[in-house]
Amino acid sequence: MLASTLVVFLLTVSYCNGNYEKQRMLRQNLSEHYNPELLPILEINNSSLPLQINAKLFIMALQGLEYKTQILTASVFWYFTWKDEIFKWDHYLEYKNISRLTVKASDVWVPELYIVNDVRKMPIRNTGDNEEYVIVKSNGYMTWFPAKELQTSCAVDVSKYPFDTQACTIRMEAWYHDNKSFFLNTIGSGIETSDAHFVENGEWDILDLSANPFQYQDYADNSSAYSSIHYTLILKRRSSYHLITTAFPFVILMALNLFVSVIPTECGEKLGFCMSQFLTMIVFLTLIAQDMPSSSLMISYLTFLISLQILVSGITILIVAISTYLQTRTLEDRPSYLVRVIFSPIRYFQDSNRKKRCTRVGDSRQEGFITWLEIDRKLNCGLNILLLLNVIATVSIFVFVII
């Protein structure tokens, strides 16, 4: 039993040593006439076909979309395949038992590709301590899995915040080799989430993923075209959190404006309540603006509605202040001619089916005139109508436009 175990151990060690030596010799033979800086294609009759690079993008995690800076952050990796016509050994009989090798990306040719809208680091290929490896098959097919944390620019549409949907694009382009040298092609859909690694984002939900290969012209020479793939991510904001922290407080603050008419004008707290509403809306608008990009190209409907509430609150303060002043006027104080011109037509329209009230003073006959208290009632009636229309308009915009 001991002898058989020893024999198996020695055979295993011998096989491993032999396999290691064959791989070392194979690497030496392949690297002897190989230059990783040159395209690995063969010329036939002084012409060659462009190298086809097949690519697929896998999203491992979506860290988020920063509204203020308009930057999308995501952890991804690519699956690249192509055929190297130089670095292969399927025609060597002595190495037929070696089906694949794993080599550093710097030891073989890999495509120089760039994420042109990455704000931090555009090259896909990592160097130094983070250098990737390439899997090489005996027939020359290469497989490369570069991983990267992307920080790409994304022009956000803030109009329907916080119930918005965004479309962000990751632009991958070849810079130094035109499509006569190699071109990019997508594998399947070209982009998908990695089932084994994907982590859901708490704020954004991925609705759709797409990849579109196309060619773009050289900026200096229009006769040359370069290959590119644009990856598009459609993201929808998860609105539950913002319903509680943004929409619900906004609706409550708007509804509180209606209760201004409930507080008697004689009560000094009515003006203080209106001032509190006005200042609260300003603070609320400031908090919302902190998350918005500093751009005038597009304004959020929510920002517009909050600004509208600030305007309505300002008008309410003005009317309440005037109403408080009118409460101090006596019945003997008659309104000025201008005030009577403004408010009398309204009164006469309401009293169109009645006769004019007249009172006899001595031998003269005096028509009834509008008093300051009647003006106060009309102002408050107009304020109530304004607040009601404000609620109807705001709710309509919120429901039919934003949501």
UniProtKB/TrEMBL annotation:
One of its GO terms (molecular function) is transmembrane signaling receptor activity. Residues 26-238 form the Neurotransmitter-gated ion-channel ligand-binding domain. Residues 248-330 form the Neurotransmitter-gated ion-channel transmembrane domain. Keywords: Ion channel, Ion transport, Membrane, Signal, Transmembrane, Transmembrane helix, Transport. The chain crosses the membrane at residues 241-259, 271-289, 301-326, 383-402. It comes from the Eukaryota. Its main location: membrane. InterPro entries: Neur_chan_lig-bd (IPR006202), Neur_chan_lig-bd_sf (IPR036734), Neur_channel (IPR006201), Neuro-gated_channel_TM_sf (IPR036719), Neuro_actylchol_rec (IPR038050), Neurotrans-gated_channel_TM (IPR006029), Neurotransmitter_ion_chnl_CS (IPR018000). GO terms for cellular component: membrane. Residues 1-18 form the signal peptide. It is a multi-pass membrane protein. It is found in: Membrane. Belongs to the ligand-gated ion channel (TC 1.A.9) family. PANTHER family: NEUROTRANSMITTER GATED ION CHANNEL (PTHR18945). This is Uncharacterized protein. It comes from Mytilus galloprovincialis (Mediterranean mussel).
